[in-house]
């Protein structure tokens, strides 16, 4: 398929390890669209909390979030927090463990959603996360919900962590993902849920290319 020059917005949600980041990034390249990794922004804020020792002091953290500058480069592959490249630091086990607790704070979500909507205002964007189809871009032209069995999602995350030389086990990763799923789906504000008009894609046992073909097959360019 050729690249498109259009104003369409594609929103994609799903749990950790469902494949949405890789798939969205590849579709962005394929179709010449902007890629927005919304989870990276919650991760950057979590890093900000850890670096400043304010993970328990929500008022101070909210102040810091209002002042900080989060920017992307290399079409969403790199993220900068106050001009520092934190693309690797936001993927550590410490951030993984805390991010769902930080992401449930409504004032923080409010700031991050505003920022995401500014980035997406011109369209030609594919954005992925937990609330992109429901809260951030409720009028998106295309909405997808990606999912996979928890074991498969744990295996994918385990493979990523092995590449980063993080010592862990598949069972430990599965337990961490299950805990995060529970927090992401049961929180009061903007929980992960399937939008009524989203197309559900089960990625279990499918290659990235197969998933991309399914999604691109739904998009009229
Ligand atoms: O997609 P990810 O694993 O990088 O996301 C990290 C965390 O950020 C996830 O556990 C929940 C939170 N998140 C969110 O609350 N809303 C989003 N739109 C994206 C991520």
Task: Describe, in plain words, how this protein is organized in 3D.
By secondary structure, this protein is an alpha/beta fold. It has a single domain (9-205), classed as Rossmann fold, CATH 3.40.50. Helix content is 49%, strand content 15%. It contains nine helices and eight strands. It has helices at 20-31, 38-52, 58-67, 93-102, 106-119, 132-136, 150-163, 170-186, 208-218, and strands at residues 9-13, 34-37, 70-73, 78-81, 84-85, 125-129, 142-147, 199-202. Strands 2-6-1-7-8 form a five-stranded parallel beta sheet. Strand 4 and strand 5 (84-85) form a beta hairpin. Helix 4 (93-102) packs parallel to helix 8. The longest helix has 17 residues, at 170-186. The model has no long low-confidence stretch (mean pLDDT 94). Bound molecules: 2'-deoxycytidine-5'-monophosphate. 2'-deoxycytidine-5'-monophosphate binds at residues 16, 38-39, 42-43, 99-100, 103, 129-132, 180, 184.
List keywords for this structure.
9 helices; three-stranded antiparallel β-sheet; binds 2'-deoxycytidine-5'-monophosphate; alpha/beta; Rossmann fold; 221 residues
